[in-house]
Structure formats: structure tokens, C-alpha cells
Amino acid sequence: MENLALYAIFDGHGPYGHDVSNYVQKELPYMIIRDEQLLTNPKKVFTNAFLTIHENIERGTNLYLESIVNGGMKSSSNIGKNKVNETTNIQLDSNTKNIPSESDNDNHSYLESYDNFKSGDNVYSDNYDDNINSDKDNDFYDDNIDQNSESDDSNEYVNEKKKLNKKKKNNKPFFDSTMSGTTATIIVHLFKEKKLYVAYVGDSRAVLGKKKKGSSNKIDAVELTKDHKPNSEGEKKRIIKSGGQVLKLEGDIPYRVFLKNKFYPGLAMSRAIGDTLGHQIGIISEPDFMEVNIDDDEDILVLICSDGVWEFISSEEAVNMIYEYGYDKVQDAAENLAKESWDRWLSEEENIVDDITVQAIYLSDKLKNNNEI
């Protein structure tokens, strides 16, 4: 296998979204790049990997819930807005044995996630809660047990919780994904073949920035993904056929997926990994896939962002916000785009900001030390 790079964003949602996105971020890239058919049948490789990792999570959820029932414990049923993001950027060649988990700066791929950014306080992190006043995620009801309690019930509760937490430390999924899941947008960049393999579920959009005819300081945006929204014609038809319904509630922004005559799970996308309840009513983990041939003279950069960026910023505006900083200041550009996204959320929604993650990748070093095409 020739040299390649893998770029990805996983945007978790729901009470256990951090568990789902963490697990997928760690396992899914391995499943893809280790498959011997990656270069000969990439669509099959990506599809099988996405479906398999969802099946693993579903089995883990069943085991988790069985353990709770057998232990006489209660699982959290809070339907929260808490979300986190996981990003992966892998530089790989045929001699690579251990896949790095951090960005390779030599590949000029940078990501920024805003975490609790406040006036005069610049804090960046891979994890972000989308509600400024969001509650802490709890795995169980009544998490604060009276440490002085001598009751057998309380002691049994503590012992069972310790057992469950111990199981969570292994590599197998062991959490409740009933109403929690993650988006997944993955791009494999083949340097020698000059190709991009793009596969995704959800709404973490990827955009290609291309040379703009007649302009030296602007670029065009070509969307590599199409957001999986439940009100899209084909997606909505599948959901309704599966027994779900698609509604936009009063005062809400997106259309959401609900059980008939119920106000849950309320998922704002039609495809995701996890969300096992949603999978009973038409949510699927099968990715859309496309192969892109790179033109070194036309194709400039790739931008992947969580939906918190795309809510108030267009693809065209976003890629140009990155490009105007130039190759050598792409990290500053990512920070600026994240901050601008945050500011627009506050301007529109006042006290709620969705998760914000930005990953920008220049496809070649032709523009190094020069912002002109």
C-alpha cells in the first residue's frame, strides 16, 4: 500500500455521545486502512466498516443494558443535548505499525475545536458541550450516593457501578447507545494515485476548495458530502416506511426523527452510527461514498467541519475564510473560522452554541510561502 493519509471527524450526540464517538474514532480508521481491498474495492471496504462498527456498538449496548438489569440498577434516560467531537488525522505508509492519534503537522492538516470560549478567554479542546449551561453527562440516576450510608442497597449499587466502569475500560463498546450516536466523515487521501475516498453518515460536511476562474484570491467550494437530513426526500421516505415520523417542532431549527406519536428520540439527522432506537425507525449507518480525482492545478484544500460551523456559514464562505490566510497560516485560519462560527451562534441563538470543529487540509505544498494560485 502506497503512502496515504486519513482525515476524519466524529460528532457525538446524546447522553452517551462521548462514548460512541470515542469508540468509533479509535476503531473505525483501523478497520478501513487494514482492509486489503481498500485500493481495489474502496466502497465495499467503507460500507462494511461503517455497518460492522454499528453492529459492534449495538451488541455492546445490549450487554450493557443486560448488566444493568441483572444488577438491579437504572440506566440514565436523560435525553440531553450534550455533544462532543472526535477528529482523526492519520499519516500512513506501508511500514507503519502504530497509527498515531494526533495530527501530523508536516501534512499541513489542522483542526480546532472551541471549548467554552468566552470573551477574553481563548480555550481550545477536542471536546465541546453544545449548550453553554449544559448538564454533566451521568451514566446513572442518583450518581451522588451518600458515602456514609450503611444500607445494603447502597453498597450493592456502588459495587455494581464499579464493575460496570471496569468493563468500560476495555476496547469493546460497553455503553448505552439507545439515544446516543455519532456522525462520521472519513476521507482517505491517496498521494500517488491523487485520489480522495470520501465516506460519511450524518451532517459533518466535507468541502473541496478549487481554483476560481478569473480570480487569484478566491476559490470555489465543491461539497463532497450531502448532509443526511431527515426531511430530504429519499431519507424521509425510508424513515416513514420504517414506522418513524419527521417533524419540525415549534421554535426548533431542524427537522427531527420521532417514533410515531412520541417526542423521542428527536434525532436531527437521518444516518448515524449508534442511535439504536432510531435504527428501528429508519435511521441507518450505511455511508454514502464517492471517489474524487485530484487535479494538482485546480484543487487547493479540503475542509471538514461539524454542523456547528455550517449552521450559519456557507461552504463558499468557509473555504475562502481558510484560503485567505494562506498555506503557512492554516492553523490560524481554522481558529478564525471556529471563532466566527461561535460568534454567529451567539448572535442568532443568544445562549446556545452547537459543537464546533474545523479541520483544514491543503492538498499539496504548491502554495507554501505564497497565497497566489
TrEMBL record:
Entry-linked SMART domains: PP2Cc
Q: Where is this region: Disordered?
A: 88-112, 134-158
Protein's cellular compartments: Membrane
Q: Which UniProt keywords apply?
A: Hydrolase, Metal-binding, Protein phosphatase
Tell me which Gene3D superfamilies the record gives. Answer: PPM-type phosphatase domain
Asked if the record carries the keyword Metal-binding, the reply is yes
GO cellular component terms, A-Z:
membrane
Instruction: Please name the SUPFAM superfamilies in this protein's record.
Output: PP2C-like (SSF81606)
Q: Which Pfam families match?
A: PP2C
UniProt-recorded Gene Ontology molecular function terms: metal ion binding; protein serine/threonine phosphatase activity
Query: How does the UniProt record describe the way this protein sits in the membrane?
Result: Peripheral membrane protein
> What PROSITE patterns does this protein map onto?
PPM_1, PPM_2
Query: What family is it from?
Result: Belongs to the PP2C family.
Query: What name is this protein filed under?
Result: PP2C
Record organism: Plasmodium yoelii yoelii
Phylogenetic lineage? Eukaryota, Sar, Alveolata, Apicomplexa, Aconoidasida
